[in-house]
Amino acid sequence: MRATQLARIFLTGVIMKRRHTSNDFYPVNSAELSRKTAIHEAGHAAAIYLGNKQKQLPPVFFQIFIKELNSNFQSTGCLCTSYDSCNHCFTKIEGGRLIHTLPSSFDEAISGFSSIQKQAYQLAYEADIINLLVGPLAEANYVAMRDDEPINPRLVNLNALHYYGGSSDLETINEYLDCLIVDRVQREKKLSELFLAAFNFINDRSNWHAITALADYILADCKNIIECEEIISVLDAHYFIARKSSWC
Is the four-CA dihedral 100, 50, 160, 27 of positive or negative sign? Predict the structure, then answer.
């Protein structure tokens, strides 16, 4: 599939609606928008598959659905300042969380659990939040590399993720945190911890190699649906290629 055709990517099994306030100060052409979108969604997919696997969490089934750009999209690009109201710049991701339904409170959800069950539930709960964060962080990392700019957790903070497709991700994260922690100070501390974990994920050479490889696969594929098995195959192959080269 040509990059200029990619307008919307839907991941069944991933966990966001992509709403993007552009961080670019120039018109966003369709190829560049497609690339940023593919990196963003590949980040989510890699976190869900590789990240959950690294934490020894259960696998989550998902697929990537691709729709073509509207025929009236101009090659000169989209000039909107917010992608929320723009049909050309909207992606939606549904399902696939480890926590399928958020509880009214975290403590209520784990009441009656054993210590091991409580630890497993909290690990899954926090993994969902990290997986939400990785998408916009992957896009931020791509933009920084494209523009030859430095990136670290201080330069790209949590609020900056609004500029990298993260508005709905952050809304969902707040819903998770509302159930998890009431105290504001403890909540901010936990979110900073999970943000750093997400940043470390995209900063890992093997993970990043897998993310960019999957983004290339998304952009090159001619099908409307990329099956879960294909996604896993791409991520595994390129993750282990990067791991092997680091051993040499």
Answer: negative
